[in-house]
Amino acid sequence: MRALLTGASSFTGTWFASALAARGFAVTGVHRRPLEAYPALARRRLARLERGVRLVRLPALASPETATLLLRERFDLLCLHGAEVGDHRSPDFDVTGALTATTAGLGPLLDRFAAAGGRAVLVTGSIFEADEGRGPAPLRAFNPYGLAKTLIWHTIRFEAERRGLLLGKFTVAHPVGPFDKPGLVTDLLAGWCRGEPARIRRPQLVRDFLPVDALAAAYAGAACVLFEKGRPVHLTPSFWPESVGAFAHRLAAAIAPRTGLACAVRLADPPEPTDEPPERIGVDPLRGLVPDWDEGRFWDALAGGLDPERRDHAVAFSING
Questions:
Q1: Burial class (CB in 10 A: 0-12, 13-18, 19+), 309
Q2: What is the three-class DSSP state of 193?
Q3: pLDDT digits (tens, 9 = 90+) for 51-99
Q4: Helices (H), the chain
Q5: Which residue in 103, 127, 247, 306 is deepest, having the highest Cβ count within 10 Å?
Q6: Residues near 106 by Cβ (< 8 Å), separated by ≥ 6?
Q7: Cβ-proximal residues to 120 (8 Å cutoff; 6+ apart), any chain
Q8: Which pLDDT tens digit goes with each residue over 142-197?
Q9: Closest CA to 153 of 234, 94, 76, 222
Q10: Computed over its alpha carbons, how large is the radius of gyration of the chain?
């Protein structure tokens, strides 16, 4: 089983690549820039893959390097995980630019993939999209980034189905774990390492938080369903569907005894205003997809990557496995 995975330098991309390799796939992970051009965190992610995943640089789907790779090698599964992200919460996010950049060259890519015997395409979606997950109707896109992801999905779907390729979608909510990108969890952990209480600005919002190692195992399982059973799959995993405030307390309760940090949490009252949907959660229970997942090991790994002595960058992201 040979898989080509785009977006291998991302937080979830590195975990997905490792999980695919663990399930027996020969994985080629794609990164777009020279390795030395990536920030330190992305380089750490990619270095973690060296033992089980072959890395190749493809500047774009439409690049000559991509054409050469697909002419030279056969892949059974195409995992379209990479996308233009940038500041995904910005109201000025460039929807058209992201759609164009992410799907440029998609048609010729799928033509070459199918001509070489490729069978299936697995697309990573986002809970930010329209009509994904559960919550109050209508299930609108969260923001311009969510709109871009919606349009990207429908573009890939159209192009894959017209070529007779088997199609799967794996929709991600809010992954949590080692090697995470800057955001809610890394900000909380960094603040606690500095001895500062965490202030949750919008504690009332209900979201779905997903341990990344369990999420990656479920992703690899979805790939196996596509490849081995030959049937389409559409999963939107759910693990901790709760308010942001409740999750902050959950995180504090797990990290404090493992590190000795105070891990204080303060909820804004009243919460800051937002136009985001009040609730958006997953559909498919992740525990049922990965029944052997070890919660203690997950928290141990996350806490083990913290270095309270480092004030400039508190999360060291050191994890084994």
A1: exposed
A2: helix
A3: 779 998 888 877 888 888 887 889 999 999 987 777 777 888 999 999 9
A4: 11-22, 40-48, 64-72, 95-103, 106-115, 144-162, 184-193, 212-224, 244-259, 286-289, 295-304
A5: 127
A6: 61, 155, 156, 159
A7: 76, 77, 78, 165, 166, 167, 168, 226, 227
A8: 999 999 999 999 999 999 999 999 999 999 999 999 988 888 999 999 999 999 99
A9: 234
A10: 20
Structure tokens at 42: 């992305």
Q: What is the Cα–Cα distance from 307 to 305, expressed in whole angstroms?
A: 7
Residue 230: exposure state from Cβ atoms within 10 A (0-12, 13-18, ≥19): exposed
Element (H, E) at 237: strand 237-238
CA 167 to chain centre: 18
Domains of the chain: 2-175+209-238 (3.40.50.720)
Q: Taking phi first (over 0 means left), then psi (-120 to 50 degrees means alpha), and beta for anything else, what does residue 183 get?
A: left
